[in-house]
Amino acid sequence: MAEGPPIIQTRNVSKRFGDVLAVDDVSLDIRAGEFFALLGPSGCGKTTLLRILAGLEMPTAGSVWIDGADATHVPPHLRPVNMVFQHYALFPHLNIFHNVAFGLRYLGVGRRQRPRRVAEALALVRLSGLETRRPDELSGGQKQRVALARALVLEPRVLLLDEPLAALDQKLRRQMQEELKALQRRLGITFVFVTHDQEEALTMSDRIAVMNAGRVEQLDDAADVFERPRTAFVADFMGAANFLAATVVAIGPAGALVRCAGGCEMTVSPGKRALTHGQSIRLVVRPEKLTLRAHKPGDGAACLAATVESRLYQGIGTVWTLRGPTDEKITVYQQNDRPLEELSLGVGSRTLACFDPRHAVVLED
User: Fold this and answer.
1) Cα dist. 194→62, 150, 166, 171, 286 in Å?
2) Is residue 321 part of a domain?
3) Does one domain contain both 205 and 290?
4) DSSP 33-46
């Protein structure tokens, strides 16, 4: 992952549309050369923030710095950034060469240099030889590559991407994820990528800012966002469905001894929270970290007695929905690496849902 000084900084950026606060006091540092994702559900403010970085929206408050200079009120065409839109915005009456070359004349690139620049950009996205075609003669994946080439030909310091893969089918989308990541690594350009797809953000990004209601709930490396969510919103959005109420029993050098509402005790890391004796907290455990057991194993695992409510067989794995001792819902995702007869628990069966206490994350909210 890229290190060093940030190429983009936002400081207390907010954006209002009438009574709607779309972006709320967001401060970010995006490093040069990293693949950075803005992730969140529809309406969370991620696209508005991207448009502010592009200069297509002006912030109501706060400032934007790009490459060490205040760019808050700099128009889009004077910023060292370029944007790839969700629906590509290609000119249907122009062929691929002229679509890609369109911005070069505004940069003052001479007619003799334009063919070389266009050829280099099309080679980067593997579209050499298609210069004379029009957009309606291309597939969805090819159109996406043309939009990328049109942005890259201007040699931006930062490439902004607004859900550019959303219109593609699943197979092509996965292929383009790999290609985009490989292209970013090869070029060393900073990519800022907006998506609502958790898997897409995890697959492609160095760091992820998870947004909710206009604010950044968590900014971390991709693995930390997935494995160690800080808030209930982030945990739920990233698919960690198991929330456990607990009470702090003791504080020691190894961590905090907590007792779950269901009765099990375990020692957990407090993370960034300062816990106190007797404090009520919430833990979250990802579904794939739990296993079903007939008896409590002797390896220090924490176990919750539970009743099977449903079983969803998915081929490579099985999703179990259980009801815990205090009526909480427990979801277990278990890889199907056992004999089929060991997966025969029926509805109403009693079992133990067990996990390593190191996988229990203390939520900050």
Assistant:
1) 21, 19, 10, 20, 25
2) yes
3) no
4) T-EEEEE--TTSSH
